Amino acid sequence: IETSRQINLIYQYWIHTDAIRTIGPLEEVLNTASHHRVHHGVNKQYLDKNHGSILILWDRLFGTFEREDEPVVYGLTTNINTFNPLRIAAHEHDQIRKDVAAADNWHDRLSYIFRGPGWAYSQHRGVAGGEDGPVEVSAHLATTA
To answer: Cα(78)–Cα(115) distance, rounded to whole angstroms?
Structure first.
C-alpha cells in the first residue's frame, strides 16, 4: 500500500506543470498535465471533471472526462478575497452550511452536501456559467498561457 501511495505522489509531481504539453497516444489512458489543468479549472465546462489520479481511463468510463479546449482559469468559482489560510480552508464548508440552511427542500439540501460544485453553482448561486454567465476571468489571479 505504501509503495502505491509513493508512486501516486511522484506521478502527481509532473502533472502539476505547464512544461509538458502532450504525451501522445498515452493521453488516452494516463492522466496528463493538460487533463489535470482541467481538473483545477473554474471554467463552466471544466467543473467536476477529470478526477483520475494516474489513469484518466476512469473519467472516460464514467463520463467525467473533458479535454483542455480553451485556456484554463484557475481559482475558486467565487472569489473569497482573502489570503488567510484558515479562512480559505473553512470557506467552502461555511458556504455549504449556508446553502443547506437556505434550501427550500430536502433534495436541494442533500444535493449541496453530496453533489459537486457544478450542480450548486449552475443551479443556485448564479456563477460559473449559471444565470450570470461564465466565470469572470479578471476575478482570478492566474490562467494558462
So the answer is: 17
**Which amino acid would we find at residue 42?**
V
* Stronger pLDDT, 140 or 48, i.e. the higher one: 48
C-alpha cell at 116: 459537486
For 49-62, the pLDDT digits (tens) are: 999 989 999 999 99
The domain of 24 spans 2-62
State the DSSP string of 132-144: TBS--GGGSS-B-
Q: What is the pTM of this model?
A: 0.69
Residues 98 and 134 in one domain: yes
In a domain, 72, yes or no: no
